[in-house]
Description:
Two copies of one chain form a homodimer.
Chain A: H1 9-16, H2 20-27, H3 35-48, H4 54-61, E1 66-71, H5 77-92, E2 96-101, H6 106-119, E3 124-127, H7 133-141, E4 146-149, E5 160-163, H8 166-179, E6 184-188, H9 195-211, E7 220-222, H10 227-238, E8 246-249, H11 252-264, E9 274-276, E10 293-294, H12 298-313, E11 321-324, E12 328-329
Parallel strand pairs in A: 1-2, 1-3, 3-4, 4-5, 5-11, 6-7, 6-8, 8-9
Antiparallel strand pairs in A: 10-12
Helix pairs in contact in A: 1-2, 1-3, 2-3, 5-12, 6-7, 8-9, 10-11
Chain A binds a DNA duplex through helix 2 and helix 4.
Amino acid sequence: xxxxxxTLLGDVAREAGVSxxxxxxxxxxxxxxxxxxxAKVKAAxxxxxxxxxxxxxxxxxxxxxxxxxxVPTLDNPIFSAMIDSLERRLKHHDCRLLIAxxxxxxxxxxxxxxxxxxxxxxxxxxxxxxxxxxALTLLKQYALPYLSCWHSENDPDWPSIGFDNAxxxxxxxxxxxxxxxxxxxxxxxxxxxxxxxxxxxxxxxxAMDAAGVxxxxxxIVTVDYGIEEGAYALQLLMRLDPSPTAILCGNDTLAFGVxxxxxxxxxxxxxxxxxxGFDDLPQARFMHPPLTTVAAPxxxxxxxxADALAARIQQQPTIHCxxxxxxxxxxxxxxxPPST
Amino acid sequence: xxxxxxTLLGDVAREAGVSxxxxxxxxxxxxxxxxxxxAKVKAAxxxxxxxxxxxxxxxxxxxxxxxxxxVPTLDNPIFSAMIDSLERRLKHHDCRLLIAxxxxxxxxxxxxxxxxxxxxxxxxxxxxxxxxxxALTLLKQYALPYLSCWHSENDPDWPSIGFDNAxxxxxxxxxxxxxxxxxxxxxxxxxxxxxxxxxxxxxxxxAMDAAGVxxxxxxIVTVDYGIEEGAYALQLLMRLDPSPTAILCGNDTLAFGVxxxxxxxxxxxxxxxxxxGFDDLPQARFMHPPLTTVAAPxxxxxxxxADALAARIQQQPTIHCxxxxxxxxxxxxxxxPPST
DNA sequence: TTGTATGCGTTATCAC
DNA sequence: GTGATAACGCATACAA
Lengths: 340, 340
């Protein structure tokens, strides 16, 4: 069966009339190999249909040819877009992708990281800046190249490629304030273990503080990311008296839910209610009205992470903290509040 | 650093005063191990903080603890939803996920499969029923457990978990015909190497043939999956005279594009134009009007694939061809045609 | 430039 | 039940 008669490196060597070392050298593009030897080996490889054994090569060379990516979830298209471009780009570096999700539970993230490290990955990418301290210890202990992304903290311990989550959030809130809104509510994901959510919330708050616009606790609703959850949040907020004239959402998915519930409740947007998101999912512009949001550079991050991690694995120097622009996308879901 | 003083299996054995074989047995939950030995080893493992080496264990045991998934793209949320649930469920089987995309190019799929097989995966999942013959040869040659999904062909060579793509497509077309449409157009992805697209197209055609509704070539537009592409397709179709009163789209993403372009062109939906999708992405119900579509059981497929592949890896019997329901979701994007 | 010989860290096959 | 020890298949330091 599996074991019967696989052709091994030794078979190729015999067939080509050279040593196993030479075959290995040719296959690994080592320098100082004569063209003649290379040709002989390649011919033998083709003749026998030889395919190297991954685990064996991994054991001997101490690298497995794959990196690990730890993401909160693939169910949010913004992350799957990033993973898609990451995987695509990794191919150029002859590198595979091992993926694990932890659904915003940092203990699960650590556990998943342990598993991947044990698996023998050559490098790791994590999302965000919040992690268990043990995660860092583990990475350093194994001297594993790693990268964090999706944030802009300049932390000596964490090389990163991402964007500022607070600044665009602040600009969204400023935009609402400039439009005349004074009763602004926020729908956010739990901020524990989620620095991006925290940064966005801080951005919202900074803008409002600076403008002297109040943000009482009752106008902040915390729910998990999700359409249903966003819809639920809107219901809570609309019970307030007076109710908010605008809602800043932690991401697009929440905004979708908010808008869905608002429509069902017969609330006209943007006339009676302004709504903002964060991510700029492809569907954001299809909403009614089209959603004002922030474009998270997911594809770009994936691409750059692949290059940077590949560089780090080859001990090449990389920029420690790479910050990409995340532009505001102003659409029609934001407008002046109703004139009372 | 990495090489300095990792604790190895032998260290644990010495620390516990037992043989390496015993340590290995304890770690692998082998039968016939005394409780006393187990305790000694576990204590030693904890004391030394021993972590097994993945590649070494893979080489010796001939299994790597990970399967490979080959998907056309992760950029379509329907696939990332499936992968998310697949990865989640695989954890229960103590199995990791190696992922590769091929962007609807079957040669790239084969190439990616080769790479993953070489990597040493314990099993493979492929999407759909169209693959290069060499893919099957490869899987059989390596005696690798594998599964195809997202289709319902009962092919002895391809165990599968999926749904019928043709039947719901047919029902969508029948729905339009029952509403009174006679000038129905189709926007499809290229059907070469994409059996799902082909099956859906066949479903559309069958319904129309049966009802005596014509489907001339000019009413079939073939574009890649994508919002822009869908928008472009609508432009082409609206140049026809008479123009179609309904458009069947190969998936939701195309439908989104069609609807976007229709809105821009000032075409009222569903009064002047009915549109259908396929997949039921979370955003489908947010469209204006909410999109009539077919719910692809992505999460369910991911979950079942994990269980079935894990079973196959353990040589357990599984259902060869598992077909899941993909229900129609009738919303407001479909209505009777304008009365001329 | 090429060949030889050893090591990579486990698992698994034997005996005991 | 437990312990030696031979695979596992390749990469690489070293010698030539």
